[in-house]
Amino acid sequence: MKRVTIGVFGGSGFYRFLKKYKELPLETSYGPPSAPLKISTVEGKRVAFIPRHGEHHEFPPQVLPYRANIASFKEVGVERIIAPCAVGSLKPELKPGDLVICDQFVNFTTGRRDTFYDGPVTTHISTADPYCPELRKLARDAAKKLKLPFHYGGTVVVIQGPRFSTRSESRFFRDQGWDVINMTQYPEVALARELEMCYANISLVTDYDSGLEDDPKVEPVSHEEVIKIFNENIENLRALITEMIRTIPSKRSCSCGTALEHARMEA
Q1: pLDDT digits 0-9 by tens, 112-135
Q2: How far is CA 207 from CA 9, 115, 155, 220, 240, in A?
Q3: What's phi and psi for 167, nearest 5 deg?
Q4: Handedness of CA 36, 8, 255, 184 (dihedral sign)
């Protein structure tokens, strides 16, 4: 099989991306991924797709097989990952339907298997800048070309789930100056860095997390509303990802591919 270099994750409401594909079941050292990989050619490039929650949304965020998903991409040769997801807004100016190209995350999850390196060689990767700068710029340029509403840069706070935030928790997150909230970005992005893969997050705002304090008519998030807004914007998201794939160069110019240099504690 021709080497696959680009991986795409599907989030809540985004269970299909490729129209024609070959299905590739895989079993990694960390178990099977959320679903068999779907392999196809997009804009002349080989692409693998995994719906991160499974084909029927059977994996809630706290039990997703994050390591198996990333490892399966690595196994077929993926170097770059495009990872759309649904997020709640923590700021009035980030409206449902807007895209946020995040550059930082804050982790509030607990108990997730979040590393490939449990020894015997201790490995400390840097996540000072966790998202690939090259892919982020391509996402920005694609959004501009397609005239989509987007925000370049933002911090996503990642909570454990599966419940949504209390009003007090949401107020705390807003007071920190963070932008959007999600349940799956961690450890996905960190695991990709551990395997020296580029990773870009495209956050689709689907709701205001616990409503807007100065507008009581804006209701707190519900899963039904998340899926509704995601479905209304699915074609924009497909177009953005396709345009990104079209413009991805054959060689990487970022440092993601050398993340393990000087990261290991070896005697």
Answers
A1: 999 999 988 899 999 999 999 999
A2: 21, 31, 16, 8, 20
A3: -60, -35
A4: negative
Query: The tokens 């700068």 sit on which residue?
Result: 133
When computed from its CA atoms, the radius of gyration of the chain, rounded to whole angstroms, is: 18
Fold of 6-265: Rossmann fold (3.40.50)
Single pTM value for the model: 0.93
Instruction: Give 188: exposed, middle or buried? Use CB within 10 Å, 0-12, 13-18, 19+.
Output: buried
Q: Give the start-to-end residue ranges of the domains of the chain.
A: 6-265
Amino acid 214: pLDDT:
61
Q: Which residues pair with 83 in a beta bridge?
A: 201
Q: Residue 1 pLDDT > 60, yes or no?
A: no
Burial class (CB in 10 A: 0-12, 13-18, 19+), 136: buried
144 close to 120: Cβ distance less than 8 angstroms = no
Q: Does residue 243 carry a pLDDT above 60?
A: yes
Residues known to be catalytic: 207, 209
Q: How far apart are CA 64 and CA 247, in angstroms?
A: 30
Residue recorded with tokens 């959320």: 34
Residue 181 identity (one-letter amino acid):
I
Distance of CA 1 to the CA centre of its chain: 26
